[in-house]
Amino acid sequence: MRTEEPSSPLLENEAEARLETALADVSRIICFANDWKGDPTSKHHIMRRFSRIRPVEWIEASGMRIPNLASSADWGRIGRKVASRFKRKPGEFKRKPGEGGRSEPVRVHTPLTVPAPGNPLAHRFNLGVYRRLLRPLQDPSRPPLHWVYTPTVAAYLDLLTDGPLVYHCVDRWWEFSEYDSELMRRYHERLCRASSVVIASASELLGDCLPLNPNSHLVRHGVDWGHFAPAALNPSETAKPAELRDLRGPIVGFWGLIHDWVDVEAVADLARALPHVNVILIGSARTDVSALRARPNVRLLGQKPYGSLPDYARWFDVALVPFRLNELTRAVNPIKLREYLSAGVPVVATALPEVTAMAFHGLRSYEGSDGLVEQVSNILESPLVQEDRIRLAQSMAKESWEFKCAEMAELATGRSVGAPA
């Protein structure tokens, strides 16, 4: 029996009306971000929804670090960028695969810039590339809205004077191990000071931005609710993935990049303490995962298409956000947290500030490996029945990206429904 989804047209229409009003005077949105290719992140979700109202020019900004020439991954990224630069036609519209819906006009630009932040020669070269790229996109009669994610754009702010500038701060860039910390902090501070509006995705980030720009606001991440909720609302329509069909016993799951901010040791300790539990990790690994491979009840499935994630979530008894607690992760607002909850899956997450700030039934925080084992065990001892999973998913409906985008657009332009034009 199909359960009616609570994403009512009234709610969707309300959010879209707000977004349309907020962007009424904007000719287009010029977004500076990382590569378009890959699984959707917050910036992809946001720009896709903005593009339903106004055209979006997605500019793949210059790299955040010098490539490691010994890295096959970096060479692959360089090859893809060069190939896409010559294969993609100017003006070609793109839509993220597997997300459904209409084809929104997101136009992707792949300028051939030199990924050497802070290098004077690279800066001079990149400046010319950006100037030629931006010139035909600028219309003095109807200025664009500039929306910046990558801090390296701070070096080219003189080119962005024809319209308001929004800095969407979603990470402490200076805390990433592979980036130049001092340079990234300097870029971040420059962007904060130069922006018309700063939007922070976490309370810790807001604390970083407010002293530099009083027009800084907290808007937490949203969720692609319509994509994940069917895992709880219509479970009979979700096929069991082949990698899970032979499993017996509870499934504890995770998806996302397995990098140095993921507490691999804590997950391995969980698998060791609960040998009857299947621990499933979905995502590419860019850190040592030998401790996980050593456990017979752990499966590393690698990266899976975004469109298939609800199929896995349907079979999770518990989902994890097992991050290390440090200065980087204290400012993180994990999108996967809302994705799990929207799929009706109870979550056990590290006690990050953004986790403890959420008061949703089905979310538990922990500290240390023992705390992780305890909280997972507690949920498995009293698992959610299907009605509970449906209620959990429904409770996330107003966390959708549609509402978050409307709020951000109103902050960016100062226009809202009912406000004087």
Can you put this structure into words, describing what you see?
The structure is a single chain. The chain is of the alpha/beta class. It has two domains: 9-222 and 400-413, Glycogen Phosphorylase B (Rossmann fold, 3-Layer(aba) Sandwich); 225-398, Glycogen Phosphorylase B (Rossmann fold, 3-Layer(aba) Sandwich). Helices cover 36% and strands 14% of the residues. The chain has 16 helices and 14 strands. It has helices at 9-22, 42-50, 72-87, 120-134, 181-194, 203-209, 225-228, 230-233, 264-273, 290-293, 309-313, 335-342, 353-356, 368-381, 386-394, 401-413; strands at residues 29-33, 56-60, 93-94, 106-109, 145-148, 165-169, 197-200, 216-218, 251-255, 278-282, 298-302, 318-321, 347-350, 363-366. The strands form two sheets. The chain has an eight-stranded mixed beta sheet, with helices on both faces. A six-stranded parallel beta sheet has the order 11-10-9-12-13-14, with helices on both faces. The longest helix has 16 residues, at 72-87. The chain is globular, with a radius of gyration of 22 Å.
Number of DSSP-assigned strands: 14
> How much helical structure, as a percent, in the residues?
25-40%
Order of helices and strands: HEHEHEEHEEHEHEHHEHEHEHEHEHEHHH
Q: CATH top level of the largest domain?
A: Alpha Beta
Question: What is the overall number of helices?
Answer: 16
Give the integer mean of the pLDDT values. Answer: 88
Strand order of the largest sheet: 3-4-2-1-5-6-7-8
- Helix/strand-derived class? alpha/beta
Portion in strands: 5-15%
Q: Runs with pLDDT <50, length 5+? A: 1-6, 90-103
CATH topology descriptor of the largest domain: Rossmann fold
Q: Alpha-carbon distance between the termini?
A: 47 Å
CATH architecture of the largest domain: 3-Layer(aba) Sandwich
Shape: globular
Number of folding domains? 2
Main β-sheet: number of strands, strand sense, barrel status? 8 strands, mixed
Supply the CATH superfamily name of the largest domain. Glycogen Phosphorylase B
